């Protein structure tokens, strides 16, 4: 796969907007659907853009109805709804800050009210920024990151459990930085380590109920995180330092979520997939 040139760019927002990115991230599924998720209902947090949009498109193609929880990126969310509907499925949009427990409960309950059930929970929504001087990082910023990247996963899972039966799936987004660490992303890496530990612990907790819990730990992927986090010169040719020499695209990550969400992944729980372009890290 040829690596598209990524020019210098940045956005003064987190989460940033996918519709402003150049080039546009590639979310499109590559293969015809075969019904792997027929009759299923999936709630995807952070589903408006990036990896979340790619998951929504792929799951819709495989037959799932989709609910998307997101912060406030209405234009991106509307585009994702259009993508899901063009795949022949239904899509519910649920805006709100998932760092607030009531909004997590609302996302789950609105999904069940709209579609009658919940089969798959994708905890994917998050925020990221560079810790330019960790010693001076404000308490507010630290608490905001923990709320978005840790508490939201816990609150949404709590709310979902009463609706998830045997065979249900929970899939959490972690990161290569949970394993390798990154000096400029201390707070973010810490939260992604927490999502990894949460995954493994909940997998053990829910095994007897027949619910699997797994994680996906992407490497450098071309999503709104990147222009929303980095300086323009850092964004240029993002991902070129990986063994594959390029950033990953969202569609290349979504397939890992589909594996865990479908019957293909029925014998996996507490595990992590690493779509990271060849970066070797501890499992």
Automatic annotation (TrEMBL):
| Top enzyme class | oxidoreductase
Gene3D superfamilies, sorted: NAD(P)-binding Rossmann-like Domain
InterPro entries in the record: NAD(P)-bd_dom_sf (IPR036291), SDR_fam (IPR002347)
Give the Pfam families listed for this entry: adh_short_C2 (PF13561)
**EC number, as in UniProt:** 1.-.-.-
* Region feature Disordered, mapped onto this chain: 1-32
What one GO molecular function would you report for this record? oxidoreductase activity, acting on CH-OH group of donors
Q: Where is the composition biased (Basic and acidic residues)?
A: 16-29
Q: Which controlled-vocabulary keywords does the entry list?
A: Oxidoreductase
Q: Which family does it belong to?
A: Belongs to the short-chain dehydrogenases/reductases (SDR) family.
Q: What is this protein called?
A: YdaD_1 protein
